[in-house]
Here is the input.
Amino acid sequence: MRVSTSLVVIALVVGACTATVDLPPTSQPSSSSLPPPTTTSTLPATTTTDLPSHDVGLYRVDPATLTPVTGTEPLTTGDWITGRLSDNGEWLALHVWIESDPETDLIQVIHIPTGEIVTEMPGRLANLVGVADDGTVYTMLWRVTERWTLRKLVPGATGFEVVSDALPSEFVLWGQSSSVQSDHLVFLGSFGGDFEESVAGIVTIDLTDGSAESYRLPDLTIGIVGEVDLGDWSAPEFVEPALVWDPTGNRALVVHGDRLAVTEVDLATGDVAEHDLSSSASWWGRLFTWLVPPALAKGDPSFGIKRSAVLSPSGEMLYVASARSEVVWDDDGEWEILTLPQGVQAIDTVTWEMVARWDIPASTVALSPNGNYLVAGGTTITETLSTGDFGSEGIFVIDTGSDELIGHLDGPNEYPEVHFSPDGDFLYMVGSGGGQIDIVDLTTLEVTDTAVGPEQLALIGDVSLLVTSLR
Here is the structure.
């Protein structure tokens, strides 16, 4: 699922060979059997007077309808708003852009229970990486010395404080997935410049003292690994693994992209273990054969693979989905790049067994806050140099207690973004084109309401806050 540039969405998201366990096939109700929306809520432009002439405002909303709470003013306004939420849901760090002359770029910290903006600082070039349960904001800044600097902004402070300059200069960032509440940040990337000579790995920064630890993972593949000659151009071949953070076990898990393995890094001991899942290869092979058309099964050159992963609240179950791109040639020598969702697997992180799989066209996964529901989505993409065709596979809902696939929803359009209510009772499917959010009751899988508003209509993760237009 992708996010349109016209939409502001803040997402909260992030061994030994073993025998597999075959599960009985699951039934999949058709989307036509699901009840249609019962109501439609049109969002008001504003409930206040004398607002600044900005484009969007951040409102408290009713989680069941997403309508702004009656009589409330926006917590803040701007022309573009993104941000991150603390794990306890009490602090919101916002990156607010205001179109002016000159342009204004702010970091704002809001105490959600009171709605008070406790900190405001110029935010130019500040990359938000997290906000702690005490409201301390952490940002990464790229320096002219070609090094990343981790900084923090304490509530009420008048300036940033450097936490660490210890990220290795040779380390190329690929992604970050961890919680600042763990006193560590974990970054995925590679050491070295040229992809043919670089080594994949992770770097952890201890937020208590700013020290960094590097873990080189030579058996992990990441980034561009080659290219495919298509005649009129050369397409890069890439591998994108998935990084997840387990605060319960104080460990980082990296799901390999090019093979069936998970690397586990224990931050308490520094131990690194690779868990080989190749004994489950028949499962993955059948899955790929089921989803990949015959032209791809013959060994046409790969354009890349991308993993998506999420961990259960207990840290004992890892859910993985994948998207695989291939180059397909027709009889006339013309090519197209076909990206296909590859299904979902569940991996037990205690026994390192693959305990469940779902043969559904899904390439991304998300968990409800209570961990009761796994939501997976996928998009099939066909591309050439001049054309692109995108087909939504919809949203699939899985009960994690029974491993049953309990429903399928069409979603607003090709790239619906999913969010949840704080209690995990409601699923929100945000249309990538803006202007519509479908509200789903996860206990009944009914679309109970549809919030309709202006183009800049978006949710703030797992709190009842909505970004919508002021005009």
User: Anything to note?
Assistant: Confidence is low (pLDDT under 50) at residues 1-51, 281-302.
